[in-house]
Amino acid sequence: MSLKKMTNHNVYLFIPNIIGYIRVLLALSSFAIFQKNLVIFCVFNAANQLLDAADGWAARRYNQTSNFGKILDQITDRLSTVLLYLLNSNVNSEYMIAIGLLMIADIGGHYIHATSCLIAGNKSHKKIDDGDILLKLYYENPAVMFVSIVCYETFWISAYVFKVSAEHLFIHKLSYYTLMCSIPLAMFKAV
């Protein structure tokens, strides 16, 4: 059977959804290993973020878009970021309230946007007809969206690694530089 001719009865085995399952495993694995191995923690998170771009590409390439896949992608994105919020609020307890508010805004903002698009009958949450020019730039320009997401996740990964890696000078300095470089677009995505 051709990949393009798959029917809804096997939507759970669509390539983009399998990528989504792998992303969940990577997020949970990075969370399980965060205290034991910073390098593997970073590799798992980086792979998770790269696969975030791959699942959308696979859905379009193989004509395997589905409501299940859209929901899985949103949940996987939120799960990945929430785990990073939790790690950072644990090691940066002085910022726990701010991180908690960012987490609520992140989850709430994505939920409100996705729900309003669904109610409006939009085929995609990435198509913005009217409204905020920054929202339109973010959702309708794949390069801007990709780089913003990478910078946002890099910010949170680097913030955590910077805080816990003081005894590993190279990792500590590298995490500092990636943290500083990611701030502008991480702030853009957060807004």
UniProtKB/TrEMBL annotation:
<keyword id="KW-0479">Metal-binding</keyword>
<keyword id="KW-0812">Transmembrane</keyword>
<keyword id="KW-0460">Magnesium</keyword>
<keyword id="KW-0443">Lipid metabolism</keyword>
<keyword id="KW-0444">Lipid biosynthesis</keyword>
<dbReference type="GO" id="GO:0003881">
    <property type="term" value="F:CDP-diacylglycerol-inositol 3-phosphatidyltransferase activity"/>
</dbReference>
<dbReference type="InterPro" id="IPR014387">
    <property type="entry name" value="CDP_diag_ino_3_P_euk"/>
</dbReference>
<feature type="transmembrane region" description="Helical">
    <location>
        <begin position="142"/>
        <end position="162"/>
    </location>
</feature>
<dbReference type="InterPro" id="IPR000462">
    <property type="entry name" value="CDP-OH_P_trans"/>
</dbReference>
<protein>
    <recommendedName>
        <fullName>CDP-diacylglycerol--inositol 3-phosphatidyltransferase</fullName>
        <ecNumber>2.7.8.11</ecNumber>
    </recommendedName>
</protein>
<keyword id="KW-0594">Phospholipid biosynthesis</keyword>
<keyword id="KW-0808">Transferase</keyword>
<dbReference type="InterPro" id="IPR043130">
    <property type="entry name" value="CDP-OH_PTrfase_TM_dom"/>
</dbReference>
<dbReference type="GO" id="GO:0046872">
    <property type="term" value="F:metal ion binding"/>
</dbReference>
<keyword id="KW-1133">Transmembrane helix</keyword>
<keyword id="KW-0472">Membrane</keyword>
<dbReference type="InterPro" id="IPR048254">
    <property type="entry name" value="CDP_ALCOHOL_P_TRANSF_CS"/>
</dbReference>
<dbReference type="GO" id="GO:0006661">
    <property type="term" value="P:phosphatidylinositol biosynthetic process"/>
</dbReference>
<feature type="transmembrane region" description="Helical">
    <location>
        <begin position="12"/>
        <end position="34"/>
    </location>
</feature>
<dbReference type="Pfam" id="PF01066">
    <property type="entry name" value="CDP-OH_P_transf"/>
</dbReference>
<feature type="transmembrane region" description="Helical">
    <location>
        <begin position="174"/>
        <end position="190"/>
    </location>
</feature>
<dbReference type="GO" id="GO:0005794">
    <property type="term" value="C:Golgi apparatus"/>
</dbReference>
<comment type="similarity">
    <text>Belongs to the CDP-alcohol phosphatidyltransferase class-I family.</text>
</comment>
<keyword id="KW-1208">Phospholipid metabolism</keyword>
<dbReference type="GO" id="GO:0016020">
    <property type="term" value="C:membrane"/>
</dbReference>
